[in-house]
C-alpha cells in the first residue's frame, strides 16, 4: 500500500534517543487521512535489525539509517578506485555486528588484465576462506547481472561500497526508470561540507528493494569494544575458542589459537591485519 505519510506528533521508538523515528525499510502502521494516498504514521513495528550512525561526533543521539535489511552487498573494485581490504573488512565486521548477512561483489571486471584477475582470485580466496561469497560483475559489459538479480529478488538489500565503485550504475541497470546520477565525486564533497545524507530505498522491477548507502562516513563502523571485535571476524571467532586465555585479544598472548591458525594459513594475513587495526586504532578514518 502506498501513501505519502507524515509522522504523528509524539511518535517515539522505545529504547532510543534518535533524531529520526522512522527510517527506510521500516514497517509501519498508518492511518489514511481524508486525501487519497496520504496518511499519518501511527506506529513503527518492531525492527528485525537496523543500522545506526551518531547524529554528530559530540552528541549521544543516533540516527537510524535503515531497518529490516535482509542482506548487505558490498560493491568493490580492484582499480578505479582500488578498494582497500581494510575498508572491506570494516564494512564486513560492521555487518556482522548488525547481524546482516554480507556478500562481496567485485565490479568492473571489464577493466581487469591478467594481473587484475590474479588480484581478483586472491580476493576470492581470502573472503571465501573467511566464509563470504564473492561474485564478479561488470555493469558496463552486462556480465554477472542475472545472478545478482536472482539474489536481490524479493529482498531488502543494502548496497555498500566506496564512492566510484558503480553503486548508482548498478541500481540504474536493475531499474532503468530511476536514472540516478553516476560518475560524480559528490559523496566526498557532501561529506566535506557536513551535509547529512540519508540512504534511499529503490524498488526493483522483479520484486524487492535496494538501498543506496551514503559514503564511507555515512555507513561507519558499529561501536564495538576492543574485546569483542573478534566476534565480528567469523574465522577468527571460530579459532578463538581454543585460545588459552578467555580474554585473549589475539595479539601476542601465549597459547593464542588465532595466531596458530594464522601461521597455518587458516586465517589470512590481510584479514588479521584489519582485525588488529580495528582493535588498536580508536579514531580511524574509516569510522
Ligand atoms: N569500466 C567500468 N566502469 C564502470 C562500471 N560500472 C560503473 N562504472 C563507472 O564508474 C563510475 C562511477 O560509477 P557510479 O555508479 O557513479 O559509482 P557510485 O559512486 O558507487 O555510485 C562511472 O563513471 C561509471 O560509468 C563497470 O562495470 N566498468
Ligand atoms: Mg552513486
Ligand atoms: Zn587468542
Features:
binds zinc ion; six-stranded mixed beta sheet; alpha/beta; three-stranded mixed beta sheet; 27% helix; 287 residues; binds magnesium ion
Largest sheet: 6 strands, mixed
Number of strands: 11
The number of distinct helices, counting runs of at least 4 residues, comes to 8
Separation of the first and last Cα atoms: 37 Å
Based on Cα principal axes, name the global outline.
globular
Poorly predicted ranges (pLDDT <50, ≥5 residues)? 190-194
What is the topology?
Elements: E1 4-7, E2 28-32, E3 38-44, E4 50-54, E5 62-67, E6 71-76, H1 85-97, E7 102-106, H2 114-129, E8 134-136, H3 145-152, E9 156-160, H4 167-174, H5 186-192, E10 200-203, E11 209-212, H6 234-240, H7 257-263, H8 269-280
Parallel strand pairs: 1-3, 6-7, 6-9, 7-8, 9-11
Antiparallel strand pairs: 2-3, 4-5, 10-11
Helix pairs in contact: 1-8
This protein binds guanosine-5'-diphosphate (GDP), magnesium ion and zinc ion.
Amino acid at each position: 500500500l502506498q501513501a505519502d505519510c507524515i509522522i504523528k506528533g509524539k511518535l517515539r521508538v522505545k529504547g532510543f534517543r534518535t533524531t529520526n523515528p522512522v527510517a527506510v525499510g521500516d514497517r509501519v502502521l498508518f492511518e489514511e487521512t481524508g486525501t487519497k494516498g496520504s496518511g499519518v504514521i501511527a506506529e513503527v513495528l518492531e525492527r528485525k535489525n537496523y543500522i545506526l550512525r551518531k547524529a554528530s561526533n559530540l552528541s549521544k543521539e543516533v540516527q537510524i539509517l535503515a531497518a529490516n535489511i535482509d542482506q548487505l552487498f558490498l560493491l568493490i573494485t580492484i582499480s578505479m578506485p582500488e578498494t582497500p581490504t581494510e575498508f572491506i573488512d570494516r564494512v564486513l565486521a560492521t555487518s556482522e555486528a548488525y547481524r546482516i548477512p554480507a556478500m562481496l561483489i567485485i565490479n568492473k571486471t571489464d577493466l581487469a588484465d591478467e594481473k587484475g584477475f590474479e588480484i581478483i582470485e586472491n580476493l576470492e580466496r581470502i573472503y571465501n576462506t573467511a566464509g563470504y561469497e564473492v561474485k564478479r560483475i561488470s555493469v558496463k559489459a552486462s556480465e554477472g547481472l542475472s545472478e545478482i538479480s536472482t539474489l536481490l529478488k524479493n529482498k531488502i538489500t543494502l548496497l555498500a561500497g566506496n564512492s566510484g565503485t558503480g553503486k548508482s550504475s548498478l541500481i540504474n541497470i536493475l531499474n532503468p526508470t530511476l536514472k540516478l546520477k553516476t560518475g560524480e565525486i559528490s559523496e566526498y564533497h557532501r561529506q566535506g561540507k557536513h551535509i547529512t545524507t540519508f540512504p534511499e530505498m529503490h524498488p526493483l522491477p522483479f520484486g524487492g528493494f535496494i538501498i543506496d548507502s551514503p559514503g564511507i562516513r555515512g555507513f561507519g563502523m558499529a561501536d564495538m569494544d576492543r574485546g569483542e571485535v573478534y566476534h565480528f571476524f567469523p574465522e577468527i571467532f571460530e579459532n578463538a575458542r581454543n585460545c588459552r586465555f578467555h580474554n585473549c585479544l589475539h595479539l601476542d598472548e601465549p597459547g593464542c589459537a588465532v595466531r596458530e591458525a594464522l601461521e597455518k594459513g587458516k586465517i589470512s594475513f590481510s584479514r588479521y591485519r584489519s582485525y588488529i587495526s580495528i582493535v588498536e586504532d580508536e579514531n580511524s578514518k574509516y569510522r
